[in-house]
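Example record for the data management plan.
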Amino acid sequence: MVLIKRYPNRKLYDTVAKQYIALEGIAELVRQGSDIKVVDNTTGEDLTAFTLTQIILGQEKRRDGLLTHSFLTELIRSRGEQIAALKNSWLSLTPFGRQTDEEIKRRLQNLVESRELSEQEAARLNEKLVSPTAVLDRESGPMQTIDAFIARNRLPTRDDIQRLYNQIDDLSNKLAEMIDKEQ
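Corresponding structural encoding:
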Protein backbone atom coordinates (compact mmCIF):
# COMPACT_ATOMS: atom_id res chain seq x y z
CA MET A 1 0.00 0.00 0.00
CA VAL A 2 1.40 3.35 -1.05
CA LEU A 3 0.45 6.03 1.46
CA ILE A 4 0.22 9.52 0.02
CA LYS A 5 -0.19 12.52 2.28
CA ARG A 6 -1.93 15.66 1.08
CA TYR A 7 -0.69 18.85 2.69
CA PRO A 8 -2.66 22.10 3.18
CA ASN A 9 -0.88 23.62 0.16
CA ARG A 10 -2.47 20.77 -1.89
CA LYS A 11 0.89 19.12 -2.48
CA LEU A 12 0.92 15.32 -2.46
CA TYR A 13 3.76 13.40 -0.83
CA ASP A 14 4.50 9.74 -1.57
CA THR A 15 5.68 8.31 1.77
CA VAL A 16 7.13 5.20 0.12
CA ALA A 17 9.24 6.97 -2.53
CA LYS A 18 9.83 9.84 -0.08
CA GLN A 19 9.12 12.53 -2.66
CA TYR A 20 6.35 14.80 -3.85
CA ILE A 21 4.10 13.32 -6.50
CA ALA A 22 1.67 14.78 -9.03
CA LEU A 23 -1.77 13.40 -9.83
CA GLU A 24 -0.37 11.83 -13.00
CA GLY A 25 2.23 10.03 -10.88
CA ILE A 26 -0.55 8.61 -8.71
CA ALA A 27 -2.40 7.55 -11.87
CA GLU A 28 0.74 5.74 -13.01
CA LEU A 29 1.05 3.95 -9.64
CA VAL A 30 -2.56 2.76 -9.99
CA ARG A 31 -1.96 1.61 -13.60
CA GLN A 32 1.04 -0.38 -12.37
CA GLY A 33 -1.20 -2.18 -9.88
CA SER A 34 -0.22 -0.38 -6.69
CA ASP A 35 -2.82 0.05 -3.98
CA ILE A 36 -2.86 3.65 -2.86
CA LYS A 37 -4.33 5.57 0.01
CA VAL A 38 -4.40 9.35 0.11
CA VAL A 39 -4.90 11.02 3.49
CA ASP A 40 -5.03 14.61 4.66
CA ASN A 41 -1.81 15.14 6.58
CA THR A 42 -3.50 17.36 9.17
CA THR A 43 -6.78 15.55 9.85
CA GLY A 44 -6.03 12.01 8.65
CA GLU A 45 -9.20 12.11 6.52
CA ASP A 46 -9.20 9.57 3.69
CA LEU A 47 -9.02 11.51 0.41
CA THR A 48 -8.44 8.54 -1.88
CA ALA A 49 -11.79 8.64 -3.70
CA PHE A 50 -11.59 12.42 -4.11
CA THR A 51 -8.06 12.16 -5.53
CA LEU A 52 -9.03 9.38 -7.93
CA THR A 53 -11.96 11.52 -9.08
CA GLN A 54 -9.56 14.40 -9.75
CA ILE A 55 -7.39 12.08 -11.82
CA ILE A 56 -10.36 10.86 -13.87
CA LEU A 57 -11.58 14.41 -14.45
CA GLY A 58 -8.08 15.53 -15.44
CA GLN A 59 -7.80 12.68 -17.92
CA GLU A 60 -11.23 13.55 -19.28
CA LYS A 61 -10.09 17.14 -19.90
CA ARG A 62 -7.11 15.97 -21.94
CA ARG A 63 -8.93 13.33 -24.00
CA ASP A 64 -11.86 13.15 -26.36
CA GLY A 65 -14.70 11.44 -24.61
CA LEU A 66 -13.50 8.71 -22.29
CA LEU A 67 -16.84 9.49 -20.68
CA THR A 68 -19.48 10.43 -23.23
CA HIS A 69 -21.55 13.58 -23.03
CA SER A 70 -24.75 11.53 -22.65
CA PHE A 71 -23.26 9.38 -19.87
CA LEU A 72 -22.13 12.46 -17.92
CA THR A 73 -25.52 14.13 -18.41
CA GLU A 74 -27.34 11.05 -17.10
CA LEU A 75 -24.87 10.78 -14.24
CA ILE A 76 -25.66 14.34 -13.17
CA ARG A 77 -29.40 13.72 -13.47
CA SER A 78 -29.21 10.55 -11.39
CA ARG A 79 -26.90 12.12 -8.76
CA GLY A 80 -24.47 9.20 -8.98
CA GLU A 81 -27.11 6.48 -8.62
CA GLN A 82 -26.04 5.07 -11.99
CA ILE A 83 -22.56 4.37 -10.69
CA ALA A 84 -24.01 2.49 -7.75
CA ALA A 85 -26.17 0.44 -10.14
CA LEU A 86 -23.20 -0.23 -12.40
CA LYS A 87 -21.13 -1.27 -9.41
CA ASN A 88 -23.56 -4.03 -8.57
CA SER A 89 -23.33 -5.65 -11.99
CA TRP A 90 -19.92 -4.74 -13.38
CA LEU A 91 -18.28 -8.15 -13.00
CA SER A 92 -20.93 -10.01 -14.95
CA LEU A 93 -21.20 -7.39 -17.70
CA THR A 94 -17.57 -6.58 -18.46
CA PRO A 95 -14.90 -8.54 -20.29
CA PHE A 96 -12.86 -8.25 -17.09
CA GLY A 97 -15.62 -10.03 -15.17
CA ARG A 98 -15.81 -12.82 -17.71
CA GLN A 99 -12.01 -13.11 -17.70
CA THR A 100 -12.06 -13.31 -13.92
CA ASP A 101 -14.63 -16.10 -14.00
CA GLU A 102 -12.58 -17.97 -16.62
CA GLU A 103 -9.41 -17.53 -14.56
CA ILE A 104 -11.14 -18.86 -11.44
CA LYS A 105 -12.31 -21.92 -13.38
CA ARG A 106 -8.85 -22.47 -14.86
CA ARG A 107 -7.13 -22.24 -11.47
CA LEU A 108 -9.64 -24.55 -9.83
CA GLN A 109 -9.10 -27.07 -12.64
CA ASN A 110 -5.34 -26.85 -12.07
CA LEU A 111 -5.87 -27.57 -8.38
CA VAL A 112 -7.98 -30.61 -9.25
CA GLU A 113 -5.33 -31.84 -11.68
CA SER A 114 -2.61 -31.40 -9.04
CA ARG A 115 -4.87 -33.22 -6.56
CA GLU A 116 -4.98 -30.28 -4.13
CA LEU A 117 -8.79 -30.17 -4.50
CA SER A 118 -11.37 -32.81 -5.25
CA GLU A 119 -13.76 -32.38 -8.19
CA GLN A 120 -16.62 -31.80 -5.73
CA GLU A 121 -14.71 -29.13 -3.79
CA ALA A 122 -13.75 -27.40 -7.04
CA ALA A 123 -17.37 -27.46 -8.25
CA ARG A 124 -18.57 -26.03 -4.94
CA LEU A 125 -15.91 -23.30 -4.97
CA ASN A 126 -16.60 -22.50 -8.61
CA GLU A 127 -20.27 -22.02 -7.82
CA LYS A 128 -19.48 -19.72 -4.90
CA LEU A 129 -16.66 -17.73 -6.50
CA VAL A 130 -18.22 -16.97 -9.88
CA SER A 131 -21.57 -16.03 -8.39
CA PRO A 132 -21.60 -12.30 -7.59
CA THR A 133 -24.18 -12.85 -4.85
CA ALA A 134 -22.35 -15.70 -3.14
CA VAL A 135 -21.51 -15.30 0.50
CA LEU A 136 -18.73 -17.43 1.91
CA ASP A 137 -19.00 -18.55 5.50
CA ARG A 138 -15.64 -17.63 7.05
CA GLU A 139 -16.44 -19.58 10.23
CA SER A 140 -16.14 -23.02 8.65
CA GLY A 141 -12.96 -25.11 8.58
CA PRO A 142 -12.63 -25.47 4.79
CA MET A 143 -12.48 -21.66 4.56
CA GLN A 144 -9.04 -21.76 6.17
CA THR A 145 -7.86 -23.88 3.23
CA ILE A 146 -9.48 -21.49 0.78
CA ASP A 147 -7.98 -18.47 2.53
CA ALA A 148 -4.54 -20.11 2.39
CA PHE A 149 -5.02 -20.84 -1.33
CA ILE A 150 -6.09 -17.24 -1.99
CA ALA A 151 -3.11 -15.86 -0.08
CA ARG A 152 -0.65 -18.28 -1.71
CA ASN A 153 -1.82 -17.34 -5.20
CA ARG A 154 -2.18 -13.61 -4.42
CA LEU A 155 -5.82 -13.55 -5.50
CA PRO A 156 -8.09 -10.67 -4.52
CA THR A 157 -10.21 -11.50 -1.50
CA ARG A 158 -13.83 -10.57 -0.95
CA ASP A 159 -12.53 -7.86 1.39
CA ASP A 160 -10.40 -6.46 -1.47
CA ILE A 161 -13.44 -6.43 -3.76
CA GLN A 162 -15.58 -4.88 -1.03
CA ARG A 163 -12.90 -2.21 -0.56
CA LEU A 164 -13.17 -1.45 -4.30
CA TYR A 165 -16.96 -1.23 -4.02
CA ASN A 166 -16.56 1.17 -1.09
CA GLN A 167 -14.13 3.29 -3.10
CA ILE A 168 -16.64 3.40 -5.96
CA ASP A 169 -19.34 4.48 -3.50
CA ASP A 170 -17.04 7.17 -2.11
CA LEU A 171 -16.22 8.30 -5.63
CA SER A 172 -19.95 8.51 -6.43
CA ASN A 173 -20.61 10.56 -3.31
CA LYS A 174 -17.70 12.93 -3.94
CA LEU A 175 -18.78 13.36 -7.56
CA ALA A 176 -22.34 14.12 -6.46
CA GLU A 177 -20.99 16.66 -3.94
CA MET A 178 -18.85 18.30 -6.63
CA ILE A 179 -21.87 18.48 -8.95
CA ASP A 180 -24.04 19.94 -6.19
CA LYS A 181 -21.42 22.63 -5.49
CA GLU A 182 -21.35 23.64 -9.16
CA GLN A 183 -25.14 24.04 -9.33
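Summary line stored alongside the record: Confidence is low (pLDDT under 50) at residues 131-141.
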